[in-house]
Amino acid sequence: MTEPKENQTGRRRAPGMSPQERRAMIIQTAIPLIAEYGAAVTTAKIARAAGIGEGTIFRVFADKDELLQACIAEALSPEHAVRELDAIDVSQPLPDRLAEAAEALQAHMARMGTIIGSLGHHGGKHPGTVRGAGRDESTTRIRAALADLLEPDEAHLRRPPEQIAALFFGLLFTQPRTEDEPDLTPRELVEVFLHGALSGDAK
């Protein structure tokens, strides 16, 4: 009996997924390849990494450009960052909570920078909506998750949790870099944010 072509090529048949699930799987496979190869990555390479035929990609994406735009949108999506913030144990002391939040958000920003930098703002196009949310809504969701982390200590805050969250979020995005000093660790950044620039023995 003739061996099935799928077995001859060594390529496994794509698992039974809905088009939405297959799109998500392809995007997750493509993102690390885009980070490595940029826009030069081929759909054939993505297909091999995903264990599917190249034609499967074009059953859920019109072309490579649409796939790249979808990967940018995924990198900009707040979903992963919000899930990580929501998972932080609010029974911890506030400095510990904010240090974990800083680590999660810095990783989120690194993912965004890697993909967008690798693609060089591919084609000059804006990725459009991010899972139905624009940039402003994405920022709002992350700030809201930060405010939730601050609420247990609301009585000790000088300003409302929402405003403190916005300040903290802004600090993470605009942390100044200096040539002579290493970047602050998340815990060091939180310490300065919560206690200011003066040392404890300053008068």
Task: Reconstruct the topology from this structure.
Elements: H1 5-9, H2 19-37, H3 43-50, H4 54-60, H5 64-76, H6 79-86, H7 94-119, H8 135-150, H9 161-174, H10 186-195
Structure description:
62% of the residues lie in helices and 0% in strands. By secondary structure, it is mostly helical. Helix 2 packs across helix 5 and helix 8 crosses helix 9. The N and C termini lie far apart (89 Å). About 9% of the residues have low confidence.
Keywords:
10 helices, mainly alpha, 62% helix, 203 residues
Number of strands: 0
C-alpha Rg (nearest Å): 22 Å
Q: Main β-sheet, in a few words?
A: none
- Spans with pLDDT under 50 lasting ≥5 residues? 5-10, 122-133
Which percent range fits the helix content?
A: 55-70%
Q: How many separate helices?
A: 10
Order of helices and strands: HHHHHHHHHH
Short note summarizing the structure:
The protein is mainly alpha-helical and 203 residues long. The protein has helices spanning 5-9, 19-37, 43-50, 54-60, 64-76, 79-86, 94-119, 135-150, 161-174, 186-195.
